[in-house]
Amino acid sequence: MSDFLIQPYHPETDFAGLLGLIQAVETADATGADTSETNLRRRLSLPGFDPALDQILALHPDGHFSGQTAIWLPPDSQTAFIGLSVHPQQRRQGLGSQLLAASLKRARELGARRAAFNVWQPGAAGHFFLLKHGLKLAGHFTRFSAALPLQATLRSFPNQFSVRSFTRVNELQTLASAFEQCYAGLWGHHSHVTIEELQEWLPQMDPEGILLVFDVEENVVGMCRVEINPEISAERGGLTGYIDAPGWLPAYRSQANTTALLHLALDWLSGRGAVQAVLESWGDPAETLLLFQKIGFKLERQVSEYGTDLAN
User: Fold this and answer.
1) Is the pTM of this model over 0.85?
2) Same domain, 122 and 164
3) To which H or E segment does residue 254 belong?
4) What is the domain extent for residue 247?
């Protein structure tokens, strides 16, 4: 086992070495992470992040950086988000465990009550490492894409429901309740949504693409958000739609309902000339993710979050 030196980050001398380390890790793991100089500088300047204290490095006896961990406690948050990586040539030597211990110690010093780690797919070693150290899987963020129109047969919407856009509904409390209840219990979603938060979000959304599903008693039981996204369209070189995966009240969650609402969103995009779609899912179970693939979407990326409570 090598004698690694765990030390704080020094901005004036360590930036190039840290950048080289994370790029070497990405070259080996090929997760699709952004390892550009611009992104590293952005990460080091996040609000509430002190690079001299919250960025920790591991120095190999020969002088190169062998590992790193960054601990970020966002303002007004009780969860510290931790990134950790070890150079491919120094793995399985106990360094990951050293860095994990250092990161959790720093998170406690910051006053965090919970620590969260993200593992990008593919990342079997990262999953095993965190589970071995007692962390628990919290949920997955998954991104899919598909060329439009899909070859799958579109399913008609169940006649016991009616669908209206937020443009027609135009009631903030109804929308807040929909966000809270239709994704209740799913990781990555807000358990409580305020009117003030909606007023901040809505300028970045297309109200015509916020699709609300009502039952015969005029209760909201499902929702899906869809839009033509200029930024994603520019990245992908064609008019691209964005879909925030369908959500239903727990009693209405079924593959049939999810399929019908997703097809409605795809119809919405096709009617506006989209040639491709990006679908993002937060916390959906494995059977729902498989359903999206059966409908015709291809898996692009998945990030899994593992967490642990920080006992005093």
Assistant:
1) no
2) no
3) none
4) 144-304
Distance CA 258, CA 253 (A): 7
Last residue of a domain, one of 134, 168, 188: 134
Q: How far apart (Å, rounded) are the C-alpha atoms in residues 222 and 260?
A: 11
- The Cα–Cα gap between 147 and 63 comes to 48
Domain count, the chain: 2
Question: Is 133 within 8 Å of 179 (Cβ atoms)?
Answer: no
Q: What is the pLDDT of residues 211-225, one digit of tens each?
A: 999 999 999 999 999
Average pLDDT over the chain, rounded to an integer = 92
Task: Find out whether 275 and 150 touch, Cβ atoms under 8 Å.
Answer: no
Rounded distance, CA 129 to CA 96, Å?
8
What secondary structure letter does DSSP report for 90?
G
118/245 same-domain check = no
CB neighbour list of residue 80: distance below 8 Å, 6 or more residues apart: 71, 72, 73, 106, 107, 110, 112, 114, 115, 116, 310
11 and 79 in a common domain: yes
Nearest to 274, CA basis, from 209, 204, 205, 222: 209
Residue 309 lies in a domain: no
